[in-house]
Automatic annotation (TrEMBL):
Biological source species: Nonomuraea cavernae
Residues forming coiled coils: none
Top-level lineage group: Bacteria
InterPro entries recorded: LigD_pol_dom, MtLigD_Pol-like, NHEJ_LigD
Name used for this protein in its record: DNA ligase D polymerase domain-containing protein
Pfam families in alphabetical order: LigD_Prim-Pol (PF21686)
Domain named DNA ligase D polymerase: residues: 37-295
Length: 298
């Protein structure tokens, strides 16, 4: 009997030619949904074809929940000491480190085995910056612009959608195509391919302040909580090279296994209730089956 339990705890698998040992597959990581680690690994394995392009080449920061979403968690930038030698790593300056480190050894998720390795570590949330590294591991200029739309209660994602549509038009006037996704939490994000015409943070801040000036009852561009009730914060600061944003198709550590989900613009335009834009892992797999990668179609 104990041998059976041991087998359930550690399972050797081969993923695209790499040997991995999966552990504690029956551990429930989302208790409210009964969603176990095996299901987390299954989700990431199946969504990998559309997820990996948004992780590839980008230094990874994860948020790990070894005892599930109701337990302690921690952000991790440094690849763990036991990381297999076949996982790509890049050593980069530790900009703004709170641990007085000069460099960080980041993992880069370029393939399915690396993704499964991190899923097995209960790395539920995958966060990446808006820039990639070169083949030699050098940081490249930002290639993505992001606006994080965060509602201040009683505002919800419904109000975020209204702001997103307005912001889409401003970006369109500047020749940029906006792509929407949920945050998987309470807000949403807009992305656009960035051509480096100026510093991304400077441009994003200017647009956020413009919309705040034109729509003062709806929009705020500053972090101060006293300014935010009932409004949507357009957080432009995630374009700072030292910051990261949750990746498209990443799970979030909510009560249920919600996902940062790419959206159709018609879904944004027609959103009338916060529940309209809540998608869990099974929902997202069904959406990918139906639509393919919505984020890659803009």
């Amino acid at each position: 009997m104990s041998g059976t339990r041991q087998m359930r705890k550690k399972v050797p698998v081969r993923v695209d030619g790499r040997e991995l040992v999966l552990s504690n597959l029956d551990k429930v990581l989302y208790p409210a949904a009964g969603f176990a680690k095996a299901e987390v690994i299954d989700y990431y394995s199946r969504v990998a074809p559309v997820l990996l392009p948004y992780l590839a080449g980008r230094p990874l920061t994860v948020k790990r929940y070894p005892d599930g979403v109701d337990g302690p968690s921690f952000f991790e930038k440094n690849a763990p000491e036991h990381t297999p030698d076949w996982v790509r790593r890049v050593r980069l300056p530790a900009v703004g480190s709170t641990k007085n480190r000069e460099t960080i050894d980041y993992a880069v998720v370029d393939d399915l085995p690396t993704l499964v390795y991190y899923a097995n570590l209960a790395a539920l949330e995958l966060h990446v910056p808006q820039w990639r590294v070169s083949a030699d591991g050098e940081a490249l200029p930002p290639d993505t612009l992001v606006f994080d739309l965060d509602p201040g209660a009683p505002a919800t994602v419904v109000e975020c959608c209204r702001v997103a549509v307005t912001l889409r038009e401003v970006l369109r006037a500047d020749g940029l195509t906006a792509r929407p996704k949920t945050s998987g939490n309470k807000g949403m994000q807009l992305y656009a391919a960035w051509d480096g015409r100026e510093e991304a943070s400077v441009y994003a801040k200017r647009l956020a302040q413009l919309l705040e000036k034109e729509h003062p009852e709806q929009v705020v561009s500053v972090m101060a909580k006293k300014a935010r009730p009932g409004k949507v914060l357009i957080d432009w600061s995630q374009n700072n090279p030292a910051k990261t944003t949750v990746a498209p198709y990443s799970l979030r550590a909510r009560h249920h296994p919600t996902v940062s989900t790419p959206l159709l613009w018609k879904e944004v335009e027609s959103c009338e209730h916060p529940d309209d834009l809540i998608f869990t892992a099974p929902d997202v797999l069904a959406r990918v089956e139906e639509h393919g990668d919505l984020f890659g179609q803009a």
